[in-house]
Amino acid sequence: MTKLVKVEVCACTRCSMVGSMEIAQDILLLQSEVDEEDNLRYNIELVNISRPELTKDDGEAPLVIVNGKEIFKAESAAIMEEVIRQSQQE
User: Fold this and answer.
1) Is residue 63 a contact partner of residue 52, using CB atoms and an 8 Å limit?
2) Contact (CB, 8 A) for 25 and 64
3) 6-48: per-residue pLDDT in tens?
4) Rounded CA gap, 60 and 54, in Å?
5) For a 10 Å CB count at each end of the chain, is N or C smaller?
């Protein structure tokens, strides 16, 4: 199995308004991908958090934390790449 990747998606109002819930949906889809032998391809723990104090400055939301790495102004494609990259690290 691949390395566990913990993904924390901020669900405070500010982050939700600028796309954090769509990122969470994309993570759920990635989490459910299976290989040709019906094994899960990625080992992802998805957690919703609320950290409005970290995104109080304009333009910092949405916030996603991948294995402790804070990613401000998160975009879905970049988050997926980071999750895949970290799941393949040893």
Assistant:
1) no
2) no
3) 999 999 999 999 999 999 999 999 999 988 888 889 999 999 9
4) 8
5) C
